[in-house]
Amino acid sequence: MPVNHIHFLPIVTEKEMFSCLVVTFVLFCSSIADENSIRDADIFPSSPEIERGSTLKLFCVLGKHYTSHRNASHIIWKLNHELIAQENYNIVNETVSSITIHNFTYSKAHVKCFTKYLGKEQLLVHTEVKSGFPPDTPGNISCTYYFEAELNCTWTSGRETNLMTNYTLYRKMMTSPNVVASCQSKTESCSFYYPNAPYSSAFCFQVKAENVLGEASSDCVPIPMEKIEKFEPPEILSVKKITGIKQLLTVTWKMPEKIIPSQDSTCQIQYRNLYSNSLEFVNVSLNSQEKTGSCNLTGLWDSTEYFVAIRCISDQSVLWSEWSRGKTASTEEKAPSEKVDLWRVIESSHSAGIRSVHLMWKPLNSFPPSGRILGYKIQYFPEKNAAFKMANISTDRKIILLLNEEAYIISITAYNSAGNSPEAILRIPSTDEKTSQIIETVRTFRTNEEVVVEWTASEPEVTKYVVEWYEEMEMDPFGRSWQYVSNSTHWKTNRKNFKPFICYNISVYPVYGNKVAAPYSIQAYIQEKQPSEGPVADTGIPGKNEVIIKWKEISKDKRNGFITNYTIFYKPEDGKELNETVNSDVLQYRLKSLQANTQYTVYIMASNEAGGTNGEPKTFKTLKFNKEDVIFIALPIGLSMLFLLGLWITCILKKHTFKKVCWPDIPNPAESIAVEWPLDASMNNSFLKGASSEAKTIDFEDISVLEHCFPEESQEGSLLMNCENHVSECTDINTKGTINGDKKILYNKENEVAKCFSPSMPYIITDQDIRSQMPSALTPAKEIQPMEMLEDDLCESQQSAIKNEENDNEVLKLDDFSEKALFNPYLKNSVKTREFLISENLPEHSKTEPKSQSTVLPPFQQNISGQSYVTLDMFGLASAH
């Protein structure tokens, strides 16, 4: 085994310095000489214990591993984590360094030895140093003696030494001082066990305390064994009542077996009822021969349960035994003396006029109580028919009765083994019974520990009330609480009877006799906090400058108080937040003066007395245009579209008219029905016949065409001269008309036509006036159609004929004439034509009067062969009304 282990040597005085140095040197040499050493360094003394305030000196020895390149000058010291000053160092030789610490006051500290080489510190070894005091003289020696079992003694050691201290308890026989028994302990108690604990009255007791700093002993204190005897707890055999004797319990018990013989004892009975914490005591004396005890407890409460425990003491001892294990028992019962506390909740009538009446009652309030209630008897009957009485038995404190709409009287009694309680009577009113409102106002308020309800009544003779309260969300009628109040309009209860943040319905009922009047009800929170959640906003469809914000009420279980108001916060994108506050009964609000085409964020805060809670934010965007803007924009567009639609329909219906006006057809002269009239009458006659037959097969829906006689270029000069003669000849010609629809073509018989329609004069015939309302599509062949004559250069013969007609008695009526001035697009000289329409209502001879009109055609209307021609459009312009 290596020798270079840690040693501790406390240095107290200078006289011991030399011996310590010698020991140190020897240990040091032996450490150096041991080639098998595995430690790098040693510190001694190891784990020293010194007196507080003395001087501490320690040595650090380098091992073989360090001596080649380090020496004692490289050693540094630390106390806990603080470097010790260099003036406290001492270099003993190249491998040993010591440290001296004066006035060491640490109760416990660590001293560490390091080497410092090339600027680095390396821990070599450390030790723990304790400081303390030598022990004081022990005192207050006391002992407890359990007969033939144990002798235990305790003492006090004085001040704390802070060092390991050993105690020795000496028991000495006073008559024989050399007879000594001892026991060792590291605590302030020590015991002798049987048979090393004999009974004797001639012992004294002494305690010695010692540690590394010294020792101290107490005086030997004589203690008589009979004075310190302590019993084991007695055992209760029974606690019971005696039948027929009220307010009494009998207690019996057994004494412990190991007690000093021939010594009397006293036992103490402790008892209390379970409704009270006050204790009562009864002492009972026993002689040395009695092994059991008995006692009657009198003056107890009826029907009350009691707790009983016992302890005993020797008459010569000063020490009581511990309390026995307790037992409980109840005194004799008596009939309940108080009425039950009865209340009811009446539900509305069901089918067939049946209603549910919830009856509930509380345990009896009598104190002390009469005993254990076995059950309750419920009786009820209609108020107007007492003979029809019904009864129920219930062991519970609630029941449901199904009653009809009549008034009922209900009574409840509690019973036990001794009898019944007085009846508690309550009247259930009929369904059609109305009671007056006696309670005028009710208010609640809170104090630190209580809830107070106050009310005012209009009838001071009412002196009894019932205060009922229950949670608003409570649906079970049996979950309600109530309390009767007499001779007061003020009621208070502990706040613990109410839950915080819950809404309660509180009602006050006036009671007079067995009748209950109409209640006055309010709602109240005993304590509020801010709502658990905020309202959810619904923006609907926003407008241009406004939006309607809607929200729903917060559920009752999350309000945590009465909602006082709602605040709507809204903020435009990149704008300032605004808000509006409304009352608690408002669930929608119109936000106005918003910016158009802007995104907003909105949320709603619900507030109560304790604070407010925000709902989830929601975004919406206002419209760019509102309804008025849309109407203002859409109305002109719609009107324009309707106008264009009407114009389009008109164009469809009148497309032929518009086509002729806007895009007139240019006829091909080669296809024209106008022909050159030869001088040969027979040729004219054959032509007219062919034209007549052709006219019968042509559809004249759009135009009426009459074959014209166009003058040749050679005859153009004599047109005006021959006009009168031609017109006069035409008056004698018999005409025949062929009608196709509303269009007519007039033609002449054979050679007679040649006389009227000479090559020098064209004629244009128009449609018959549709206002004449012809009964048939065909007109008589003899009827002369109206003739449209060219207005320019009228012949003098025609003018004279018109004058003759005006002078005639059979003048045409003005209403039967219509006159149109038409522009002929084929006349470059803008020659106007006039249309004369002859009514069918004129006299027959007037219709047969010849009318003539002549005009001179410009040269461009003559064909290249010298023939004149008449276009289709010229005839179309002369159409009838």
UniProtKB/TrEMBL annotation:
- What would be one Gene Ontology cellular-component term for the protein? plasma membrane
What is the first-listed, main subcellular location in coarse terms? membrane
TM stretches of this protein: 630-653
PROSITE patterns according to UniProt: FN3
Q: Which CDD domains match?
A: FN3
- Start and end residues of each Fibronectin type-III domain: 233-334, 338-434, 531-625
Domain of life of the organism encoding this protein: Eukaryota
Q: How does it sit in the membrane?
A: Single-pass type I membrane protein
* Record's keyword terms, sorted: Cell membrane, Glycoprotein, Immunoglobulin domain, Membrane, Receptor, Repeat, Signal, Transmembrane, Transmembrane helix
Task: Write out the annotated subcellular location.
Answer: Cell membrane
* Protein family per UniProt: Belongs to the type I cytokine receptor family. Type 2 subfamily.
Task: Note the PANTHER family from the entry.
Answer: INTERLEUKIN-27 RECEPTOR SUBUNIT ALPHA
Can you say what this protein is called?
Interleukin-31 receptor subunit alpha
